[in-house]
Amino acid sequence: MQIDKEKCTGCEACHPYCTVGAIHSVKKRGGEDLISIIDQDECVECGVCHRANICPTDAIYPVELKWPRSVRGVFSDPLTVHKDTGIAGRGTEEMKTNDVTGRIRRGHAGVAIELGRPGVGTRFKDVDIMAQAVAKAGAAFEPKNPVTFLMVDKATGKIREDILNEKALSAIIECGIEMDKLENLLSVIKATAPKLDTVFSLDLICKVGEKGEIETLPIAQKAGFTPRPNTKNNIGFGRPLAKEE
Ligand code: SF4
Ligand code: SF4
User: Which of 15, 69, 179, 225 fits 220 for a cystine, CB–CB 3.0-4.6 Å?
Assistant: First the structure.
């Protein structure tokens, strides 16, 4: 995203709309008047400032994004459809529709690591650090996930070199693991957290037991995580088409 220097009046109306605080005021060349500029290294190309339509002089304009910068828009702008998954947004649909897809089977856990948040964002070098750590702990990456498409080696989790310094609002690593290896994987995720220059939240998914028990819950607690009781329930959106094996 760019701001037209000739049109900008420096009113700062756009500043609070930036999802990562990338818009700043600077002195106009040769004078004391202020204009706003977008820090191109920090801008995640989410498009919010432009879509908000708040600039009184129409000074904010999008530019065509070329690779590798285009990866910012794919992971930050919810209206951009990922060309490989065909899905708008950063994740895959399977995690929310497991009763239909049956991807996460009994005895297995689905794990999602959501790196970055509005105001913070994430560089892909942090995604790379976490992905390589969980791969070493035996996790298998979800093949249709947008982050998995960026790996040069799905066995090691290595992310392609040319995007490591690119920044996005957030990126979700999705993987699966056998339930008896989950505690170790969670310990590895916890030990990797201080190496990152961003925040992340962790999602754990499993099939609910016959008596309503959630197998992942005590394992997460044992590994030092305090699961929050919030839930997101998709009721009646899909038929339970997946058969128990
Ligand atoms: S809203 Fe428009 S005119 Fe005002 S500071 Fe932002 S870009 Fe400049
Ligand atoms: S596109 Fe998004 S990150 Fe970039 S300046 Fe606009 S609001 Fe900020």
Answer: 225
